[in-house]
Amino acid sequence: MNRFESLDCLRALAVIGIVICHILGNIDFGLPENFFFQTFLPFGADYVFLFMMLSAFSMCCAYYQKFKDRQVDLNTFYKRRYLRIWPFFALMVLIDVAFGFSKESLIEAFANLTLFFGFLPNPDIHVIGVGWFLGLIFAFYAIFPFFVFLIDNKIRAWIVLALSIAMTIFASSYFSRPELVVRAVGKWSFLYCMPMFVGGGLIYLYIDKIKKIPVLWALSIAVLATVLFFALDSYHFVAKMLLFASWLIFAIADSVRPAQWTLMRNKFFAFLSGVSMEVYLCHMMFFRAIEKTHVLDFVPSGILRFLVCLVLTLAGAIAFSVLVKKTIFRGIHR
User: Fold this and answer.
1) For the chain, how many structural domains are there in total?
2) Could you give the 3-state DSSP secondary structure of residue 114?
3) In-domain check, residue 218
4) Which end of the chain has a smaller Cβ tally under 10 Å, C or N?
């Protein structure tokens, strides 16, 4: 089984969490100062790490064994990676440059369109600022054959995970000294995020055992991990990796349940998961439009203003994404 339907729920909730985080980071709604609004919702910024783990796991489901068996045509493999990402991203880049034309924007647009800007030492690109994630993901795609070699077996994969965590620690400390970099190494660096990708690969290696885990056990572990994560107030990189791993394991366990419909497996999550990348890339365009038209000025309550802003942003991004995929890029995505 290479299709785990409950993963759609994780992708959908992750992109909603990221949109919420970006909205909260750009407008002060005067929301209540409690755990939900001050800690839980802003944590959505870290859902990009969940996407990394999901990407590694999904890629392994589709290609890991094929690469080991030498059944993959590299030309076809990389063409598919470009066709999945490039068209919509290129459209968003052109729109951004058109509204903020400058010499700098042209250079940054060129870097974006190569999809290799993730290999820059300091990819501080403002044209489609959220696009840094695609640069990172495409770097993972580029080295995926080597990634398969790194996690060739479970023992080697655990060793690579330990080494990658050590590299993350050194990258954010020793290699982030002011005399070495303009800004501290962070999530835009592939080496910094490598443990998330290896974590997704490791989960794939244990997929047969994970399928046998009772879903209630997996749910209990995921809930416990979530409660401990926020209760201990420890947002270390490794803690985030363990948290997201527990969510992914639960989603896998839920996917193999005999039930045809569960809370995580329904048409809405499947639909939103299918446009999650596009919504991630274009949601700021609709948020800025809402901000500039001052439509929120007519909403009195802070919580209500936040909800209206969220609904309008998501609705605009989803509608735009679906329209573009079904018209301009219909043949490509088919």
Assistant:
1) 1
2) helix
3) no
4) C
In a domain, 108, yes or no: yes
Q: Read off the tokens for 323.
A: 């329209």
- Cβ proximity of 299 and 306 under 8 Å: no
In sequence order, what DSSP letters do the residues of 190-222 get, joined into one string? Answer: HHHHHHHHHHHHHHHHTHHHHHTS-HHHHHHHH
- Tens-digit pLDDT profile for residues 197-242: 999 999 999 999 999 999 999 999 999 999 999 998 777 899 999 9
Residue 325's identity, in one-letter code, is K
Class of residue 41 by CB neighbours under 10 A (exposed 0-12, middle 13-18, buried 19+): middle
pTM to 2 decimal places? 0.93
Tens-place pLDDT, residues 18-61: 999 999 999 888 888 899 999 999 999 999 999 999 999 999 99
Is residue 302 in a domain?
Answer: no
- How sure is the predictor about 1, in pLDDT bands with cuts at 50, 70 and 90? very low
Nearest-CA neighbor of 16 among 279, 232, 309? 279
Distance CA 88, CA 115 (A): 12
CA–CA distance, 235 with 18 (Å, rounded to integer): 17
Residue 328 covered by a domain: no
